[in-house]
Specification:
Elements lengths: L3 E6 L7 H14 L5 E4 L2 H6 L3 E3 L7 H8 L20 H13 L2 E8 L1 H16 L5 E6 L15 H19 L6 E7 L6 H4 L14 E3 L7 H11 L5 E7 L31 H13 L2 E6 L3 H4 L6 H19 L5 E9 L4 E8 L15 E2 L4 E2 L1 H7 L11 E2 L2 E2 L8
Parallel strand pairs: 1-2, 1-4, 4-5, 5-10, 6-8, 6-9, 7-8
Antiparallel strand pairs: 2-3, 10-11, 12-13, 14-15
Helix pairs in contact: 1-3, 1-11, 8-9
């Protein structure tokens, strides 16, 4: 490879995002790249010329192994909406001057939908100014909402944590001989991939959640109470999984019914939280029983002690594949995972044009949602089950997982 590499991380972190960073770094160095730079705080930090030489951080295999097992974004992240070139051309000029100063030929961005929008804009601009820099997106999001790719690294580990936590919550709920309802609020924004994963708790030693509400289906509060009331006739303890993004028939999020002030980021995304507690309060009022609302919150994306080995491995592989794709001359594309089979689980890794992916949102297929029982179908279970398999044991020091931390910038 000629020229240097720069890599950044953007958006909400995951338990395996740093494995993709390790894949980029290790592969680039193996292919002869002299310098691999890391953006601090994504594209927003790069605009302020915040970057580091990763050779000064990763001096051996131990650091890279720790990196794979470390949750969150080692380089820091951002939720920064890069404007269109026509709106603020000076920002693009500044970015490309910085990249030229660093002799960058390969640019990699690890992130979700909004990060792929950044890759699209930068690669399009590079074409207009005839820049030779190659821009490749590396998928990452626990929401699993990127189009084209079968799934996204980060999703499997979050699904594994959600399923395990749901099983544990179910065990806890059975302690007392009294009626109770527990509403578990799960991340995922406007798609139900994560919430559907709660169904994995249903196995030989656990019944799993009683009701599962995905945002792909319009939420009816009256029907919700009716179903809970009917189930209470035969069960003392109910566990209900709801997505943070469930909506009413008029389009409002259920969490908007709370009195809490809501934060809106640069991309216009609402901070979605509060649905679980709101519905728990409704249950207490309408059914007169003990009820609790639980938000798994950021635990869903930072629980590296519960990471899936399949997920960690694929996260590393997509990072490595991005470097190889750029070396082959590709640009303006995102690395994708294509499933060959469920049994045995097999996938291939390739790339796809970024314009077919950026600013799109992949929903749970209607045929994978069980409308009658308010849950998911066997097809959904076959899809998600392989993604949570096996574990990469943390490196334990003093009884706790050891992580690799960067405190600069």
């Amino acid at each position: 490879m000629m020229g240097n590499v720069i890599v950044g991380q953007s958006g909400g972190p995951t338990a395996v995002i740093n494995s993709s960073l390790a894949g980029v770094y290790k592969t680039a160095k193996n292919l002869g790249v002299k310098k691999v730079y890391g953006m601090l705080y994504g594209i927003q930090g790069l605009l302020e010329e915040k970057y580091v030489d990763l050779d000064e951080h990763f001096r051996g295999e131990l650091e890279l192994e720790l990196l794979k097992r470390t949750p969150s974004s080692y380089l820091g992240s951002c939720r920064y909406k890069l404007p269109d070139y026509q709106e603020e051309p000076e920002k693009f000029n500044k970015l490309f001057k910085i990249l030229k100063k660093l002799d960058i030929e390969y640019f990699f961005y690890i992130g979700g939908n909004d990060s792929m929008d950044t890759i699209k804009k930068l690669s399009d601009y590079a074409g207009t100014v005839q820049s030779s820099i190659r821009f490749i997106g590396i998928p990452k999001t626990i929401d699993n909402d990127l189009e084209v790719t079968d799934h996204t690294p980060g999703y499997g580990s979050a699904a594994k944590f959600i399923a395990a936590a749901t099983k544990e919550i179910i065990r806890d709920s059975l302690v007392y001989d009294q009626k109770s309802v527990t509403v578990i609020e799960i991340m995922g924004r406007n798609v139900g991939w994560l919430t559907g994963a709660a169904a994995l708790a249903g196995c030989q030693d656990c019944e799993g959640p009683d009701l599962i509400y995905l945002p792909e289906i319009e939420f009816n509060p009256e029907d919700f109470i009716t179903r809970a009331e009917q189930l209470q006739k035969t069960k003392k303890s109910l566990i209900i999984a709801v997505s943070e993004g469930i909506r009413l028939s008029d389009g409002r999020y259920v969490c908007e019914l709370t009195d809490s002030a809501k934060y809106i980021d640069q991309f216009g995304h609402n901070l979605l939280s509060g649905s679980g507690k709101y519905l728990s309060g409704m249950v207490s009022k309408e059914l007169g029983c003990k009820s609790r609302g639980i938000e798994l919150s950021t635990l869903q994306r930072c629980a590296s002690h519960m990471a899936s080995l399949t997920d960690i491995t694929e996260a590393y592989q997509v990072g490595a594949a991005a470097v190889k794709a750029a070396q082959e001359g590709k640009t303006g594309e995102m690395v994708i995972i294509s499933r060959v089979s469920d049994h045995p689980y097999q996938c291939t890794i390739g790339t796809y044009h970024i314009h077919k992916i950026a600013n799109k949102e992949k929903k749970v297929p209607a045929g994978w949602i069980d409308m009658d029982k308010i849950g998911v179908t066997d097809e959904f279970m076959d899809y998600v089950s392989p993604l949570i398999q096996e574990e990469l044991t943390p490196i334990m020091i003093g009884g706790l997982p050891r992580h690799i931390n960067y405190n600069g910038g």
